[in-house]
Amino acid sequence: xxxxxxxxxxxxxxxxxxxxxIKNDLxxxxxxxxxxxxxxxxxxxxxxxxxxxxxxxxxxxxxxPTVRHAKKSVAGFKxxxxxxxxxxxTLRRDRMWEFADRLISIVLPRxxxxxxxxxxLDGRGNYTVGLAExxxxxxxDFDRVEFQQGMDITxxxxxxxxxxxxxxxxxxxxxFRDRNxxxx
Length: 184
What we know:
- This protein has a single domain (3-172), classed as Ribosomal protein L5 (50s Ribosomal Protein L5, Chain: A), CATH 3.30.1440.
- Helices cover 33% and strands 18% of the residues.
- It is built from 4 helices and 5 strands; from the N terminus they run H-E-H-E-E-H-E-E-H.
- The protein has helices spanning 3-19, 47-61, 93-110, 162-172, and strands spanning 31-39, 66-69, 84-91, 127-131, 151-157.
- The chain has a 5-stranded antiparallel beta sheet.
- The longest helix has 18 residues, at 93-110.
């Protein structure tokens, strides 16, 4: 069993159940899935960029990404409908827990001048964090990186609202910025 899942089952779930006064175990907020999305800059000029980003995303997540295609043509961007423009992975079950554990305990602390992530959720208990480059993951070999590529990581929870979603992620160890600190 993944370490973070074990922590959720033994510590976080009972704590959330008590703090929100939830009687049913299935109503306690939990992680449903994690979606990692890379929109590839320069994909219009070079299809190889999408393949490279897809390779890096597969290394980071341990799962083969799906290539995302443009839904509409946009002349200003020289973009035609159906062109590959990014890639994404949806993680569930044990892979989701292992990825979340690596992200929280290894990757985020490796970011230069890291002071925590913003504490703004989407209104339905879900949370998205953006990373500027893929090289913060220890699995990525610096020598093989052809270009810096950012990504969005979305934590989809079963929380009823932002308060429950925030409490869940905070208990799992998400390093949120201090709410009282300036610049929030």
